[in-house]
Structure prediction request, 646 residues.
Amino acid sequence: MIPLHKCFLQAALICLLGAPAAQAARLGAFCTLTEANDLQGTNVERRLPIASVSKVVTALWSLEKGGADYRFKTTLQVTPVENDQVDLHIEGSRDPFFGRESLHFAISELNRRGIKKVRTLSFDENFKFYVQVTSDHTAASHYTTASPLPQTVLAQLKSMGSLTSGWSKTLQVAKATGTPLVEKARFSVEDIRFVPKSEAVSSSETVSFVMKSAPLLSLLKEMNRNSNNHAANQIFEHFGGAGHFRSFAAGSLGLGSRQIDMLNGSGDRVDLDSGAAYNEASCGTILRILRRLRSVLKSTGKDLQNVLAVAGGDNPSSVSKIYNNDVTQKSLIAKTGTVNPAITLAGLIRTLDGDVYFMYNIETKGTSADWRNARALIRQKITELIRDHNGGKPVKYSALQFMSVDDQSIFEGETIETDDLNHYVTDIPTPSPRPPIESLP
Amino acid sequence: MTKLFLILMLGFSPLVFAKKAVPDLFAAAESGDLATLKNHKSALKEKNSAGESLLIKAVSAGQMETAKWLIRNGADVNEADLSGGTALLYAVSGGEEELALLLIEKGADLEKTYGERKESVVFEAVRLGQNKVLEKILTKSPKLAQGANTEGETALFEAVRSAQSKSAQILLKKGADKAVRNKKGRKAVDLADPKTDSALIQILN
Prediction:
């Protein structure tokens, strides 16, 4: 016998777009978890593709392993050569948001040390770079765990023409976030090439600088804002990849393969010999992970809105684009998901009856019509859920501007004591204070 | 000679009968893989089993640059899939505001209706609270603010159902009539929930 709520859901879907298309999108699983630990729903423990809800899992794992203040360290090795030039080798760390802004910051720091002319700029296989790393295009594109390959990184660097192109835009963001950056940069590069880590050479005159990313917490927030597949995969691989995650899930979370299987950090399709594969988890597992994530965040004085997007609060964001309305506005803190077999949404609703963790997983055949129907259904159901709990309780929240580096990213490392390079610029201005993070209720 | 012929056939047959692997252009459109699409320009008019064009696929996945390139290379912005959906409908339903505005600028049909209830894309824009798109559509085609579906409901009803008070304000500004009743005799305000829809009730009263 078909459960009553399934009859209703199917009837609603039929009304939405006509019978043939409507039948393809159907409820895979739905569950809620209250603060009183009441777990309810349909197919609560059925393992299904979770799409970008995977990024919630990536967020928890990286926070548990590295902590909210963890920073990715990129090493820049500078070797003086003739004609006032240096060779510069970048030893990467899979910094997930090393793009134009991080590159400009590095150039700024090098300029502060009198380094303006580079004979050869080389990078290794752990240096992952996209010029527009925060763009929707980068976010939505498809990657393998090895992406981007060195030839892609090389192409991206070369596509900039001058590596200081777009400086004024970076400067604007730096000023808005209190990140130190020289007003005007000078930086010429004769040659750019890939040099594997195993072949990188240094000399007795090589000086290393370490450049740190912005803290992990802000990177995770940006990752989840527009569901950045590249960033999620980098973070996941940096902390050990699928094998290490499996050990963490079993050891720290008590979760086996029946509950969760993560192939990558993003939830995007993985192409195996046997065909397309996706990260999978049960609805109940995701809610337990969400609750644990919140607990980890609260232990540092933060909350879910510091990592997940807030409907109507983070604009643009994938949550706001599809699920924002008068009822959900700032009462819905969630992560969206879109893959061919599933449209998903998971997170927290804040209501007058209390906070409720939820997840919807709608099975689809990957057609545009399916995706539309699935999202419409979730939108309808999440609005009803908040209404059923007497309405939303909006969180006090203002979005912070993201930058991939901050005032703590300035270079560590030795002072150069050679006449081959220009003297230091010592009058580094004091950065203006960062805007305060909104206090939590 | 026969042996030689057989040997030649065996040697050449893989070459003769082997098909060149055709990449999945729809996956390429979905993932923004322009390089693959550029290498298969002759196949850009293909549709998949759901009747989706490459443009629909790119738009659904929010791939702006791919969509722009497809349009520049002859993609029909008004082509519909088997369920009757168009690129514009999917841009709006996916919250892809820039894409929706682009398609409108490139001549997307604003008066086409969708689904059993024959609703214009205005209804979808209101459902999602895509207010910039809504303003653009109603500027180009003001009568759509009063267009009703087969239930006799205008987009104002959808604004209430979808809790989109800003969209309701835009519709009213563009001439929507709050006194319209649907086939069951109800006005838009009658659908509002007093507990959660106070803003809407105020606007509609």
User: Anything to note?
Assistant: Residues 13-22, 415-441 of chain A have pLDDT under 50 and may be disordered. The two ends of chain A are 46 Å apart (CA to CA).
